[in-house]
Amino acid sequence: MAGVPLQGGASQISVRSLLKLQETFATGTLPLQFTINVEVKNPNATAAGMSKMEWTLYMDGNSLTNGVLVKSLSVAPNNGVGVLPVEVQLDLKKTLTGKNLDSMINLAKNVAGEGTKPTRLMMQVKPFIKVGGQELQYPGYVTVSHEFTSK
Fold first, then answer.
1. Per-residue pLDDT, 73
2. Cα gap 69→125, rounded to integer Å
3. Residues near 126 by Cβ (< 8 Å), separated by ≥ 6?
4. pLDDT at residue 93, as a whole number
5. CA dihedral 7, 72, 63, 18 (to 10 degrees)
6. Is the pLDDT of residue 147 over 70?
7. What are the tens digits of pLDDT across the range 11-57?
8. Which CATH class is domain 36-148?
9. Among 28, 54, 84, 101, which residue has the fewest nearby CB atoms (within 10 Å)?
10. Where do the structural domains in the chain lie, given as residue ranges?
């Protein structure tokens, strides 16, 4: 968040980093960057591929951000698995208002082991494939979801 790594939890953040976060927040923004690793499984008898993906990220049913990932992925047949890293960037100060703020506080409580209700993250994705040099889009959206609890 704002260039300050948060992997170790709040107890690992130095005073200097806290000051940096406070200064950034005072400027009217609070940028957050993270990676969502989406596991892709292929149950088919032939290899599956993708050339690009449009995506929208939701938390507890509220839209947080969206983007386009231009990255080829090939997944082996017969239950092959691939991992697609999706880089997410958003401005927390603009995004976290109303219901989104409540959801983020609930997520933080769940991560800390103190939450009382689950947080649901959902990503709607629209994959694209290349066939004969032409890009074709999947006709609908695929939903990927994960639920976080305090346990």
1. 92
2. 10
3. 53, 54, 55, 137, 138, 140, 141, 142
4. 73
5. 20
6. yes
7. 556 666 667 666 766 677 777 778 889 999 999 999 988 999 999 99
8. mainly beta
9. 28
10. 36-148
